[in-house]
């Protein structure tokens, strides 16, 4: 049995998994990313965790574990250089060279990309995009990420940063985005953007009060399923915005499908019904009927690790 390691590097935690060829996570561990301010100690401890997983699996298999490589999904991950470039949400600053540091411990292939690209490739290798050559993945969460696959290959572009559809401008002079510009899709269809839309619609109705406490996109989803009119209008608005962005995305890569994943997407029909209606309304006529919108078929708590591990398949 051949295995690969998938590493999901987040600002708070790093999740690691030992993954079989057919996409089963057989060992899983966790490392607190934000406990480190220096990169070398972080990699040293990460590789200790990798050794622990390999030893645990060796005990189960009764023989040495063959490791194909280590895949890393990370914010600001650059596929070409194997580095994380100045990610603002990490306590470790500067350029973090994963390939160089990991190779001090193990002589195996190391592949790194941003987390949305990893999710897209995970869907391609292990999920609903298996067998497809052209598709796009949108990930909804704290931000909005995307991964684009054309001719069976992830699109990285000249800089390694292609596919930032969450930062395509939806509205001229719209909401201020963390990237420094205004009106990006992320400011409307991320979890934070959805909450802002809900509060604005509540204010318009004269019902919003700051003392109501924290509001989350999950809460807005629950309210929608209870028939709350403002919550339903919020999801209808988000669906229209996302449908427009997806229809625009189809014009440049003509995908067979667009996959959707992430916490806000789990609300289901309050989002998906208006999203599909908007997508059909805005889609250029020559693409009508050629592309479907689908939910990711990977488990939400596994997709990041599987996506990172899948990057090794691309390398091999």
* First and last CA, distance: 16 Å
Provide the residue-averaged pLDDT: 94
The best one-word shape is globular
Cα radius of gyration in angstroms: 20 Å
* Structural class based on helices, strands and sheet pairing: alpha/beta
Largest sheet: number of strands, sense, barrel closure: 5 strands, mixed
Give the % helix.
25-40%
Explained architecture:
With 316 residues, the chain is of the alpha/beta class. It has two domains: 135 residues, 2-Layer Sandwich (Nucleotidyltransferase, domain 5); 164 residues, Nucleotidyltransferase, domain 5 (2-Layer Sandwich). Helix content is 38%, strand content 21%. It is built from nine helices and 13 strands. It has a five-stranded mixed sheet with strand order 3-2-1-4-8, with helices on both faces. The chain has a five-stranded mixed sheet with strand order 11-10-9-12-13, sandwiched between helices. Strand 12, helix 8 and strand 13 form a beta-alpha-beta unit. Helix 5 packs across helix 7. The longest helix is centred in the C-terminal third of the chain and has 25 residues. The protein starts with a strand and ends with a helix.
């Amino acid at each position: 049995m051949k295995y690969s390691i998938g590493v999901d590097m987040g600002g708070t935690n790093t999740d690691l998994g030992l993954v079989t060829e057919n996409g089963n996570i057989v060992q899983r561990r966790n490392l607190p990313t934000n406990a480190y301010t220096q990169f070398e100690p972080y990699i040293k401890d990460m590789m200790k965790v990798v050794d622990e997983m390999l030893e645990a699996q060796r005990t189960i298999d009764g023989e040495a574990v063959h490791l194909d490589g280590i895949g890393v999904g990370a914010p600001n991950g650059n596929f070409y250089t194997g580095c994380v470039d100045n990610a603002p949400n990490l306590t470790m600053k500067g350029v973090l060279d994963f390939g160089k540091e990991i190779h001090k411990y193990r002589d195996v292939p190391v592949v790194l990309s941003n987390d949305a690209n990893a999710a897209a490739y995970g869907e391609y290798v292990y999920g609903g995009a298996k067998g497809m050559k052209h598709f796009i993945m949108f990930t909804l969460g704290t931000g909005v990420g995307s991964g684009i696959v054309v001719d069976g290959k992830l699109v990285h572009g000249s800089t390694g940063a292609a596919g930032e559809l969450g930062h395509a401008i939806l509205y001229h002079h719209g909401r201020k985005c963390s990237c420094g510009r205004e009106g990006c899709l992320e400011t409307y269809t991320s979890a934070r953007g959805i909450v802002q839309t809900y509060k604005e619609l509540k204010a318009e109705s004269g019902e919003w009060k700051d003392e109501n406490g924290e509001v989350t996109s999950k809460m807005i989803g629950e309210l929608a399923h209870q028939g709350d009119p403002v919550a339903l209008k919020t999801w209808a608005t988000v669906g229209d915005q996302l449908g427009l962005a997806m229809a625009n995305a189809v014009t440049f890569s003509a995908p067979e499908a667009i996959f959707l994943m992430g916490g806000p997407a789990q609300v289901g029909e309050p989002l998906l019904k208006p999203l599909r209606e908007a997508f059909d309304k805005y889609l250029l006529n020559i693409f009508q009927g050629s592309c479907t919108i689908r939910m990711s078929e990977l488990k939400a708590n596994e997709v990041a690790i599987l996506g990172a591990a899948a990057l090794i398949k691309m390398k091999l």
